[in-house]
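Lecture notes, part 5. Sequence design as translation. It can be helpful to think of inverse folding as translation between two languages: the language of shapes and the language of residues. The source text, in structure tokens, appears below.
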């Protein structure tokens, strides 16, 4: 509790905040933060541009891709369900279990 009040008092001191903002570690942290934000923004813009290009491509291109994804997904799901190990007979519990 006392530590919290001490930190709050220090952080409300404009002179201390000014001196900290001019320190090398704080400036470097601010530079790295700005760099990371700029990179994320540029990557997001690039991804949006590519998505718009795909959507504006030949008519039906996006629909064909979505249909192909759906078909592949359902095939893989069915194959995974077929290939999963089955429990031995009589070890089932719950409704519909063999007595």
């Amino acid at each position: 509790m006392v530590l919290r009040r001490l930190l709050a008092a220090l952080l409300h001191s404009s002179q201390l905040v000014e001196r900290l903002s001019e320190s090398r570690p704080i400036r470097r942290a601010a530079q790295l933060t700005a760099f990371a934000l700029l990179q994320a923004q540029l990557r997001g813009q690039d991804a949006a541009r590519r998505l718009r290009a795909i959507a504006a491509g030949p008519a039906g291109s996006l629909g064909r891709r979505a249909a192909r994804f759906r078909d592949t997904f359902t095939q893989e799901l069915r194959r995974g369900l077929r290939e999963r190990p089955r429990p031995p007979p009589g070890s089932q519990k719950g409704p519909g279990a063999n007595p």
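The translated text above is only one of many valid answers, since several sequences can fold into similar shapes. Residues 73 and 79 are 10 Å apart (CA to CA).
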